[in-house]
């Protein structure tokens, strides 16, 4: 798509938005129901596309991509009327006779740049928020998952005109052209490095944005944890989508007293989830590209392999791998892994874990396995992170009642449920003043104005 064509598309969306068509509740509900109907009609195609791109099984495709979107849609349709309603607020004593309201309004045209690891869910979930809030939307899916990107273009193009929702396909050059356009909001999901580029582009046009990034998300297993259950939930969280999950446990911090007991449970959990030979399990995912595969393989020499370690270059597969005796100075601990490799470090005291995590960039997620309320309070109350779970992994992302987002280098802003509506909404403050009388002391000509103001506005 040429720059002129892209500019024309933006102007077409802006014109459509300014017509006011997208603002009424009835219109928004109708469009969201169209999306729901299209998803159900195309569910088989979505599963096939995800399998083609990432070898996702039907179970994984539905549970981590399609089902979450269904739940998001149902929640939004149920609550949208209430979210859209203007909210009356109290006024101060200095504003006698006035009424205050907060009115939700759309930003205008939203640009959504989606990643490759969950190419359907991480494209459609923010789209739901954008449409629910009354915006038009430009969706840029990832070129690394071409089957899903093509499906999104075909499916959304079949139910919406491009003046309302447009899918723009292409590589990084297309993303750069889109970022140069005068959109009204940017929603980006991806890496920290690209997030910095997106933020810089947004700053040029003073465009508000949300960044959903990543980082090294820790998983703490304390000495009192239920180890077998913890191992199963850690393996589930780490090796789903072959570890290509932004909130996957990036590394384990295990208490020294239980580390050697935890590792056999993790081996057992891997076998339970993926069988005796995961490389030949048809339901086990593959690495998205040769470039990412080679980067991950380079980490296998770090520490001591306690499970897995085998690779299949032809099919871009890496066994679920445990790296024992990992240390902070190893390459595997210098960047987000984003693959099926789990380093295991050890600690002696819970405060030691807090200090280690706080000495590094704020993670997108944190997981803690413990049965002690004091330990939970010490970690949750002392470490800054986007979100997470106690005695589980990943599941905080799957409820529309919890906003999802990062902090610091792991991102800014949040979405899911009402959080998605809030993200794509500007809350406009309106004060309506009475004309039945006027308050004289507000004016500098008032004889006792300052005295009254001091009484009303005292500290």
UniProtKB/TrEMBL annotation:
Q: Which CDD domains match?
A: ALDH_YwdH-P39616
**What InterPro entries does the record tag this protein with?**
Ald_DH/histidinol_DH, Ald_DH_C, Ald_DH_CS_CYS, Ald_DH_CS_GLU, Ald_DH_N, Aldehyde_DH_dom, Aldehyde_DH_NAD(P)
Instruction: Please give the superkingdom of this protein's source.
Output: Bacteria
Coiled-coil stretches: none
Is-annotated flag, keyword Repeat? no
Enumerate the spans annotated as Aldehyde dehydrogenase domain.
23-430
Under Gene3D superfamilies, the record lists: Aldehyde Dehydrogenase, Chain A, domain 1, Aldehyde Dehydrogenase, Chain A, domain 2
Q: What Pfam families does the annotation carry?
A: Aldedh (PF00171)
Do you know which PANTHER family this protein is assigned to?
ALDEHYDE DEHYDROGENASE (PTHR43570), ALDEHYDE DEHYDROGENASE TYPE III, ISOFORM Q (PTHR43570:SF16)
Annotated protein name in UniProt: Aldehyde dehydrogenase
Query: Which source organism?
Result: Paenibacillus cookii
Q: Which gene encodes it?
A: ywdH
């Amino acid at each position: 798509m040429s720059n002129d064509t892209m500019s024309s598309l933006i102007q077409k969306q802006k014109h459509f938005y300014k017509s006011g068509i997208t603002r009424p509740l009835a219109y928004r509900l109708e469009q969201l129901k169209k999306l729901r109907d299209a998803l159900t009609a195309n569910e088989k195609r979505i599963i096939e596309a995800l399998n083609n791109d990432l070898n996702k099984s039907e179970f994984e495709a539905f549970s981590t991509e399609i089902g979450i979107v269904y739940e998001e849609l149902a929640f939004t349709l149920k609550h949208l009327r209430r979210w859209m309603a203007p909210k009356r607020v109290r006024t101060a004593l200095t504003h006698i006779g006035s009424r205050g309201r907060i009115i939700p309004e759309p930003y205008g045209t939203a640009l959504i740049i989606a990643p490759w690891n969950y190419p359907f869910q991480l494209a459609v979930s923010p789209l739901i928020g954008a449409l629910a809030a009354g915006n038009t939307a430009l969706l840029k899916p990832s070129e690394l998952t071409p089957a899903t990107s093509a499906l999104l273009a075909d499916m959304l193009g079949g139910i919406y005109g491009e003046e309302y929702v447009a899918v723009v396909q292409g590589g990084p050059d297309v993303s750069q052209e889109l970022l140069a356009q005068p959109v009204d909001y940017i929603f980006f999901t991806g890496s920290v490095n690209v997030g910095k580029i997106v933020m810089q582009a947004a700053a040029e046009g003073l465009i508000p944005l949300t960044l959903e990034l990543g980082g090294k998300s820790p998983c703490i297993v304390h000495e009192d944890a239920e180890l077998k259950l913890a191992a199963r939930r850690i393996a589930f969280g780490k090796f789903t989508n072959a570890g290509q999950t932004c909130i996957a446990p990036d590394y384990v911090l295990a208490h020294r007293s239980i580390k050697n007991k935890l590792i056999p449970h993790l081996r057992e959990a891997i076998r339970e989830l993926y069988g005796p030979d995961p490389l030949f399990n048809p339901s086990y995912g593959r690495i998205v590209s040769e470039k990412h595969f080679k980067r991950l393989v380079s980490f296998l020499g770090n520490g001591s392999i306690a499970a897995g370690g085998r690779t299949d270059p032809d099919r871009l597969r890496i066994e679920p791998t445990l790296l024992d005796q990992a240390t902070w100075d190893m390459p595997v601990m210098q960047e987000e892994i984003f693959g099926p490799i789990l380093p295991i470090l050890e600690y002696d005291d819970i405060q030691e874990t807090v200090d280690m995590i706080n000495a590094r960039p704020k993670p997108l997620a944190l997981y803690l396995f413990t049965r002690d309320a004091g330990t939970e309070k010490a970690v949750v109350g002392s470490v800054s992170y986007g979100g997470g779970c106690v005695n589980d992994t990943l599941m905080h992302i799957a409820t529309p009642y919890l906003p999802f987002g990062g902090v610091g280098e792991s991102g800014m802003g949040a979405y899911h449920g009402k959080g998605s509506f809030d993200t794509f909404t500007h809350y406009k403050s309106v004060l309506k003043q009475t004309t039945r009388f006027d308050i004289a002391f507000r004016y500098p000509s008032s004889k006792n104005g300052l005295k009254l103001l001091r009484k009303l506005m005292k500290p």
